[in-house]
TrEMBL record:
Lineage of source species: Eukaryota, Fungi, Dikarya, Ascomycota, Pezizomycotina
Recorded GO MF terms: hydrolase activity; metal ion binding
Domain (Metallo-beta-lactamase) ranges: 43-263
Signal sequence annotation: none
Listed name of the protein: Metallo-beta-lactamase domain-containing protein
Protein source organism: Aspergillus ibericus CBS 121593
InterPro entries membership: MBL_superfamily_lactonases, Metallo-B-lactamas, RibonucZ/Hydroxyglut_hydro
């Protein structure tokens, strides 16, 4: 049984659509890969966290930078091996400014981890904005001092220049749901969780949205909801809710869950109670330690089974289908998620991505590489240029 710490202090949580559409080869992120689902469609969200008492603002992740051709060489040169398509329209800094939030209001940025699609472009924020990184980040080779000072670094040096880079302490014994926790504001309103496996220093956030409800900011603890769903505590319902399904004559009304469960890629015995995928341990995996990452996912399932916790993994496309964003509705936050029933609404939409009769479920979210709102024909040769 998941035990959540008590407090009456909360943070306001707003969802930021980082305007990223991308496709990634499934084997990089999930296993087993099945015919018709060789490519994952990914969106990418970040979160604006606001401490209710002090008005301090924190960005949890920054998504992508729109000028992805300026990424460090080690990232740029291998880009197209894993991602068949990418489109990014705006930097998060632009989105904040358009909503009337000066960048100087952002006291801190937390990187869930150092991968390019979460770190944004920190250099666009003033030096007064501090940067939080996870355990082990500062000691890891190929990170600090950053590119180009270290030509092999995976992160840009200008993210760190002139600002405080903080690796918070997780050694005081606080744990939540089996993860080491850091109480960010010291009052139980917002925790960082040490969630290892994807890469060194991977963090999740746990934001208290009311006295007894939380949003779990998942980063890349996993990339696809079918890694945690269905499960023994939240099995498939007999029928998948019609509103969760795309309009397609392939789906009968009502739509029995057996339409999907009968093609479960991992089990024939309990297909309605077993997640469809695990984290990838193929050679191409993006996880530095798939075994540890899968353990983190198992712990995440305990949070998922609590009616008081809404799980938001960064690349879950369903989040943007149902929940308001800072982009479109700056005054709307996610704090009333339980009242609004969003956990139920977002739960099963991922089945639309599964193969339908051996064919891909959904079309790619985006095709080709984009720049300035248009297809960028020279992208691959430019990105690979030494
Ligand atoms: Zn990611």
């Amino acid at each position: 049984m998941l035990e959540l710490p008590t407090s009456d202090r909360t943070v306001r949580v707003r969802l930021v659509d980082t305007t990223t559409l991308m496709t990634v080869r499934s084997e990089v992120l999930v296993q087993p890969v099945q015919p018709g689902h060789e490519i994952l469609n990914l969106t990418d969200v970040a979160f604006l966290i606001e401490h209710e008492g002090s008005n301090q603002k924190v960005m949890f992740d920054l998504g992508t930078r729109k000028d992805y051709w300026n990424l460090p060489d080690a990232v740029r040169l291998t880009f197209d091996q894993f991602m068949p398509s990418v489109r990014i329209d705006k930097d998060v800094s632009e989105i904040l400014r358009e909503c009337g939030i000066p960048l100087s209001d952002i006291g801190s940025i937390v990187w869930s981890h150092y991968h390019w699609d979460h770190i944004g472009n920190v250099a666009l924020f003033p030096p007064s904005t501090s940067l939080y990184v996870g355990p082990g980040f500062k000691a890891e080779p190929r990170l600090l001092p950053g590119f180009p000072d270290d030509s092999n670094s995976l992160v840009p040096a200008d993210a760190f220049a002139g600002r405080d880079v903080v690796e918070p302490d997780f050694a005081d014994g606080l744990t939540i749901g089996g993860f080491r926790a850091h109480d960010f504001f010291g009052d139980g309103s917002f925790y960082l969780l040490d969630t290892p496996g994807h890469c060194v220093g991977h963090l999740c956030g746990l934001a208290r949205t009311t006295a007894d409800t939380f949003i779990f900011l998942g980063g890349d603890i996993c990339h696809f909801p079918g890694i945690i769903r269905p499960n023994a505590k939240l099995p498939f319902p007999a029928h998948i809710p019609t509103e969760a399904l795309d309009k397609d004559p392939f789906f009968p009304t009502p739509c029995p869950c057996s339409l999907f469960a009968a093609h479960h890629p991992r089990t024939k015995d309990e297909p309605s109670r077993t997640p469809f995928y695990e984290v990838s341990s193929y050679d191409a995996t993006a996880f530095t330690d798939p075994t540890v990452a899968q353990e983190s996912v198992t712990k995440l399932q305990e949070f998922e089974s609590s009616p008081d916790v809404l799980i938001c993994i960064a690349h879950d496309t369903e989040l943007l289908r149902y929940m308001p964003t800072l982009n479109d509705s700056p005054s709307s936050d996610l704090n009333a998620w339980k009242e609004k029933g969003w956990k139920d609404k977002i739960r099963w939409g991922w089945v639309n991505e599964l193969p339908r009769g051996g064919r891909p479920g959904r079309k790619p979210l985006v095709e080709g590489y984009w720049r300035d709102g248009k297809i960028w024909e020279e992208a691959v040769q430019t990105l690979r240029r030494n």
